[in-house]
Amino acid sequence: MCGIMGYAGNQSALPILLSGLQRLEYRGYDSAGVVLQTADGLACIKESGALGELRKLLDGHAPEGRCGLGHTRWATHGIPSRENAHPHLSCHGEVAVIHNGVIENYDSLKRELLGKGHRFVSQTDSEVLAHLLEDAYAGDPVAAVRAVLSRIKGYFAFGILFQAQPDTLIGVRFNNPLVVGLGEGANYLASDIPAILPYTRRVLFLEEREIVVVRPESVVVTDFAGAPRTRAPYQVTWDLAEASKEGFPHFMLKEIMEQPRAVRATFSGHVSPEGHNLSFADLALSAERLAGFTRVLLLACGTSWHAALTAKYGLEELAGLPTDVQIASEFRYGDTPVGASTLAIAISQSGETSDTLAALRMARERGGTVLAVTNIVGSSLAREADAVLYTRAGLEVGVAATKTYTTQLALLTLFALHLGRVRGTLPEDRLVQLLDQVRGVPDRMEQVLSQTAAAVGECAERYRTGYNFMFIGRRYNYPNAFEGALKLKEISYIHAEGYCAGEMKHGPLALVNNVPTVAIAVQGRTYDKMRSNIEVIHARGGVLILLVTEGDTSLDAFGRFVIPLPAVDEILSPLLTILPLQLLAYQVAVRNGKNVDQPRNLAKSVTVE
Ligand code: AGP
Fold first, then answer.
1. Is the CB of 299 under 6 A from ligand 1?
2. Three-class SS string for 395-459?
3. H or E segment at 16?
């Protein structure tokens, strides 16, 4: 996933482009570049490495212009290097392109262009766009863009500058996000809202298969066939403060600590502050429609898939609905029947994950009704689904998902309660009991974050030089074993494996002598089974780090570290048990000097396959 930023206005473009790219660095940061329309033609400067490297290159050599494009890259084709950084120029430097996505047929196009005498300087797929546009341009920039769109396959968002078209940016959207910021005497183009928020709160979301021409005083949107497209601007309500660290050393720690607030905000959309009213009034699926489904299909990737695995338990226990969970990148190439009685729920915090989007489309093609669960208003997932439920985590900048995960858990739990109620499978007293606990969960989360930090820090210091970890759990908490392992892997680069505790005896038990095992052993239906797993590991000399329910001291003898958590219903326990695991991953990574917010090889939203 890359970051796109564009400006056309009455001020110097470069500072605005760099400021926008800074706020998009979480999308990709292995190289960066800018291109400006100047009196002497297109001036293109780019550099490998983080944005700071580009700033150094520009220091003292800043081109002056009032219209330009900027790009931060997450490499898909071609190693991170200055040559492969965007923007890419045509042979004579009269067309510049920046791209987010993949041109799937670039190889054949490149061969054709080389045969025509075009000269390439990069190994990227994106560069073909600059040469195709150079060939297609005959004075009308949109006609050239449309001609090129008829030749390429893949998914993309791109920004284009023609030297011959002063003060004019062109944006194209096909399966990758692009927003237009509407300013005074200036307009903006960006992959995501934070890049333009310091300048305007009025945005237009480009829809699929749209082209936009951005000039200082006008914004014109058409579809790929040339038909005009209009829509009212969206007024952004959240502020940039959410996108700043506010005194925390890292975005990830800020976002871990924000979770009680984020979960409270997510609950508040559906649960009244007092009483036992649970509302999904804004959901575009009526109670009658919901009551008609006989099966749920959950589709997601990464951490969102872990939220789906957890949600399965609540949907089956509270709503009595058979629930199938599939990794989106597997579902889209499989043959799972869907049908009209299936409610397919696509879960994606960014709402832009390519595999999840494709799975949503496939579930609908196979007859399902699709509900999106996402954190981003106006995201592709939100716009393509039949209905959408929003988590209210606010902007999450750290690549490792934290508050977006717990708000997914929170929202999916409430939705399971709602389904149970409309289907008549949830007794009223059970609903009341759980809603009483739901309201207390954010405070319990605050308690866990403050009370476990010291023990987690000690544990991290003790084991941070380890080369492997095992995480185990059962039922509602086995997905958190997977999530705790993923957090550690993705930010500390230490291998870790999450496992269903009952599966240990089928092989992984052989490992426990060499690696610490984190066991989630809070009270629940399978607590006794979890206890015996712990005893077996201990008897074989395994080192254990235990998460237990406070007051339960019966496991103390087995744990090198024992971390007590407040008692809550098992259904809600994942909202608490994940917190020490997030902090453990964070502490290990920071103590090992890793880049917590921008871990290597990763991006915040994977908009490529
Ligand atoms: C989790 O920490 C990672 N950032 C990654 O697994 C992420 O959850 C996955 O890419 C799915 O992203 P989405 O929720 O935006 O679809």
1. no
2. CCCCCCCCHHHHHHHHHHHHHHHHHHHHHCCCCHHHHHHHHHHHHHHHHHHHHHHHHHHHHHHHH
3. helix 13-22
Average pLDDT, whole number, for the chain?
Answer: 93
Does residue 318 line the site of ligand 1, with CB under 6 A?
no
Q: What is the pLDDT of residues 421-467, one digit of tens each?
A: 999 999 999 999 999 999 999 999 999 999 999 999 999 999 999 99
Domains of the chain in start order, with CATH, are 3-237 (3.60.20.10), 240-442 (3.40.50.10490), 452-592 (3.40.50.10490)
Residue nearest to atom 13 of ligand 1 (CA): 348
Whether omega before 566 lies within 30 degrees of 0, making that bond cis, reads no
278 vs 607, higher pLDDT: 278
**Residue listed under structure tokens 């297609």:** 136
Answer whether 605 contacts ligand 1 (Cβ < 6 A). Answer: yes
- CA 307 – ligand 1 centroid, Å: 11
Q: What is the pTM of this model?
A: 0.75
Catalytic annotation on 487? no
User: Quick check: 1 pLDDT over 70?
Assistant: no
Q: If we measure between CA atoms, which residue out of 41, 39, 120, 36 comes closest to residue 84?
A: 120
Look at the chain and count its residues: 609
Distances in Å between the alpha carbon of 331 and those of 298, 342, 385, 426, 605?
Answer: 10, 15, 17, 30, 19
pLDDT at 557 over 70: yes
Instruction: Judge whether 91 counts as a catalytic residue.
Output: no
C-alpha span between 514 and 497 (Å, rounded): 13
Residue among 304, 585, 573, 594 at smallest CA distance from 469? 585
